[in-house]
Amino acid sequence: MTIERRRTRWLAVLVFLLAVCLPVRPEESVERKRGTFVRVATSSSIVVSRFNREYFFEFLGVQPVMSLEPSDALEREARGYIATLLQDKEVILKLEEGGEARIAPRSYAGYVYLDDGTCLNEEVLKRGYGTVDAHVAFSRLDAYRSLQDEAREQKRGLWKDRPAPFDPREGLPCTDGAIAYSGLCGVSNPELILDSKVVPDYPGRARRKKIEGRVILMAVVSKDGSVRVAQTVKSPDDRLSQAAIAAVEQWRYRPALKDGEPVDAYFTIVVDFMLARGPW
Question: What is the pTM of this model?
Fold first, then answer.
């Protein structure tokens, strides 16, 4: 092989590698990340394409619609709205100042924007397609609570002539013997310690069968912050339930408080299993 042919071959290889392994663009700083919308994962998270791989952008401060029915009309409506708004568009994820960006492999949490300045976190709350998630501290909590109150007053989304959002604690007393119910009767919600958040292993068989979905667990967060899952409320597959429980029971929380004192408390934990496409 002549030197010229070798040079041409190596040049072709170099061009291919540059196309596959795109360099980090200038805007890929610690403050923000950019990607092209691919699909909706939940009403508070989307899948984007970045550097020929798929990543999850989660809407910080937003709890997705939770339904016991996989075909829930409101969840379909929320997902359809987000998909229509983002079709063929690029999005920018801006990070919470001083917050943790990467919450799992190929998953980031923050404020998701379009180039025109539209904030997806706010749009979801305005339309009642989600509620404020105060389990993790973030700077816009008060503003987001105002958006949620506005949606409730205007009877949008969750509050539009339909049953109240699913809450497995509904109709329960303040305690179940020695265990309180978080969010009721003056008991605060536990707060997740992010460093302890073990990412669930995606069961190989469920991955091969392309089984995705949301696992809702009722857990007991003890005074010492440890977690014990008491019940699986909803799951698309037993294997996903088992993987979620195995991970969640390794998490640690700042315990719920009653009159300033730590108490054992029931707490609802949501784990979403979504498949990212593309090379790892």
Answer: 0.62
